[in-house]
TrEMBL record:
Residues with 4-aspartylphosphate modification: D57
One MF term in the entry's GO annotations: phosphorelay response regulator activity
PROSITE patterns the record matches: OMPR_PHOB (PS51755), RESPONSE_REGULATORY (PS50110)
InterPro entries listed in its UniProt record: CheY-like_superfamily (IPR011006), OmpR/PhoB-type_DNA-bd (IPR001867), Sig_transdc_resp-reg_C-effctor (IPR016032), Sig_transdc_resp-reg_receiver (IPR001789), WalR-like (IPR039420), WH-like_DNA-bd_sf (IPR036388)
Biological process annotations from GO: regulation of DNA-templated transcription
Domain called Response regulatory: residue spans: 8-121
Listed Pfam families: Response_reg, Trans_reg_C
Domain of life: Bacteria
Domain OmpR/PhoB-type positions: 136-233
GO cellular component: cytosol; protein-DNA complex
DNA bind region: 136-233
Keyword list, A-Z: DNA-binding, Phosphoprotein, Transcription, Transcription regulation, Two-component regulatory system
Protein name: DNA-binding response regulator
Species of provenance: Parazoarcus communis
Lineage, opening ranks: Bacteria, Pseudomonadati, Pseudomonadota, Betaproteobacteria, Rhodocyclales
Length: 238
């Protein structure tokens, strides 16, 4: 099976057997692939070439994968999928908190890897406007303005911030469904959410820190226990 256009994916994995498995799976589905054995080699390559997605092992010989992740997220915006043999939940949560989009635990099935890759890549596709919103490009809510095209968030007093892709997509979903309870699955575009997958909760937490005066007593993004989250604000579009 081939993808429509060639998509470059960087694989940072020091285990040659695992690297071959990942590379083979990606190539079978039409993805272009470049493999790096160390974090430093990968970071140097980014100076001249950026992929659409990086598959990153946390246990690298020269530096910790978390450090690589942190450096990437301070400079670049592309998909980041962790592949790790670490079973400690705190490692996966930390990876998501630092900006990873998803993770796969070793050992894994190639089909699961490809499904995760496709899911992350979809998040980085240009947003398609909702026909119901017509040509609306700016949302106004609770004293805030959000520009869909630039991901700029502007407060009532003119302070500006630019959201990362994951937070912007989360906010757009909420803005399109104000005053409705949205489950975690809905907020993750239908992806199954396991008991250990706290990625959506971490993204909500980051978004609250930007929007709420007191994130611990949120007024805009409310938790509905046992059901999900509710965006409690009127939204207007222009």
């Amino acid at each position: 099976m081939q993808v429509k256009d060639s998509v470059l994916i960087h694989v940072v994995e020091d285990d040659a057997t695992v690297a071959r498995l990942i590379e083979g799976a990606l190539q079978r589905f039409g993805y272009e692939c470049e493999v790096f054995r160390t974090g430093s080699d990968f970071l140097r390559r980014l100076r001249g070439q950026q992929p659409k997605l990086c598959i990153l092992d946390l246990g690298l010989p020269d530096m910790d994968g978390m450090e690589v992740l942190q450096q990437v997220r301070t400079r670049h915006r592309f998909g980041l999928l962790i592949v790790t043999g670490r079973t400690d939940t705190s490692d996966r949560v930390m990876g998501l908190e630092l900006g990873a989009d998803d993770y796969v635990l070793k050992p894994f099935e190639p089909r699961e890897l490809i499904a995760r890759v496709r899911s992350v890549l979809r998040r980085y596709e240009p947003a398609q406007p909702d026909p119901a919103l017509g040509a609306a490009k700016v949302a106004q809510f609770a004293g805030w303005r959000f520009e869909l095209g630039t991901h700029r968030l502007i407060s009532a007093d003119g302070r500006e911030d630019t959201l990362g892709l994951a937070e912007a997509q989360l906010l757009i979903t909420m803005l399109e469904h104000p005053n409705q309870i949205l489950s975690r699955e809905q907020l993750l575009s239908g992806r199954d959410v396991s008991a250990l997958d706290r990625s959506i909760d971490l993204r909500v937490s980051r978004l609250r820190r930007r929007l709420e005066e007191n994130p611990q007593r949120a007024k805009v993004i409310k938790t509905v226990y046992g059901a999900g989250y509710l965006f409690a604000s009127t939204v207007s579009w222009k």
